[in-house]
Write the structure tokens for this entry.
Amino acid sequence: MKVLFCSQPFQENKVDETYEYEYTCAKQLGLDIHLISLEQLIYQDNPLAAVKQIQPSPEKVLAIYRGWMLKPFLYQKLYDALLAKNIELINTPEKYVHCHYLPESYEVIKDFTPLSVWLHKEEIDASFENVYRILNRFGQAPIMIKDYVKSRKHDWNEACYIPDASDKEKVQQVTSRFLELQQDELNEGVVFREFVKLQFLTHHSQSNMPLSQEYRVFFLDGEPMYMANYWEEGQYDDTPPDLQPFLEVAKKIKSRFFTMDIAKLENGSWTILELGDAQVSALPEQADRCEFFTRLKRNFL
């Protein structure tokens, strides 16, 4: 198994500083690590140059990417460039999209996650009435918004949270501001999600958004591999969540390597907030990076 990290921008022989600790841990554990250039992939549109430092393999070998999020068309290019060298990323482009875009996996997790609806950007541009129409099912309930991948949770009141889904002025204000801030980083469209009452942890020290007791769980081949507190602020309970209710749904996720973010509701039960492709899901600040790679290595021995 190979582990592929992003190189530092314009320094293709040095790992991106954000992933330096992960790279060091993987190297110390004796994993087969390599660097790829996102500059060549994204800005030069040269996927073969992006993977030029990796030698072709005489037989097909598995690889895991650990780096920045890629839009699906870029992941496809990276996947194909590596496959030409007989190196196969753990998730096919189809499996990548399945967990990277919430609408793609919603049908699988809908009984375990807040009610969600979505519109493509073109539908919103055509008429804002499409937004009001699709929000009717929420009544006057509070909602929050994100694109198919990410929210702007640190712009909580400005571009994320809407106290009343029937308040057309507020809906247009927050949605428009969200789209303005996302600009070219927008992933496909806007997802409108039921705002559920989570067990309060603390307020974020910078954005003042309410934080809950949330965990990020990494799954490998349908089984939990590693779990960490999502937030570094606030005092978590000593008792970790019971993952049993989520094991059956995890087996239905069309991905070999994915993350599941779960959070504690006010009533003490747990909900899935979102899924992610584990190759581009960040390890939380308090995560033990060396333990993460130790477990990853153990699964491929």
The radius of gyration is 20 Å.
